[in-house]
Amino acid sequence: MATDAHSGSPEQPLNEPVYIDGEDHLQSVVDDHGVVLVDFYADWCGPCQMLEPVLDGLASETDAVIAKVDVDANQQLAGAYGVRGVPMLLLFADGEQVEQHTGALPADRLRDLIEGYTE
């Protein structure tokens, strides 16, 4: 189920991932929310599939917005962020990219990354 980026506000975090449809959509999500974790993924990617329930949990447990970008459907956007492998995670805080990680990370490490910017 896709979530409209505008259904949440900076004061009211979203409880499920936002599926990004293009660069303008991603920019509006990053601009509208304090902390955004962006997951560049592909449906055919095993580690991406393993990461999905972790990100779903983080969306409901943290104040961060979890944004998902399908690299096959958004090749130009993935290229603009230098995505060479998936999953690739970018963390934005106050509109600026502050972290970048390639590969699936454990839930506790992702939670610590997010909490470092939301406190």
UniProtKB/TrEMBL annotation:
SUPFAM superfamilies, sorted: Thioredoxin-like
Lineage: superkingdom: Archaea
GO MF terms held by the record: protein-disulfide reductase activity
Keywords: Disulfide bond, Electron transport, Redox-active center, Transport
InterPro entries recorded: Thioredoxin, Thioredoxin-like_sf, Thioredoxin_CS, Thioredoxin_domain
Pfam families: Thioredoxin
Record-annotated Thioredoxin domain positions: 3-119
Cellular-component GO terms for this entry: cytoplasm
Name of the protein in its database record: Thioredoxin
Species of provenance: Natronorubrum tibetense GA33
Lineage: Archaea, Methanobacteriati, Methanobacteriota, Stenosarchaea group, Halobacteria
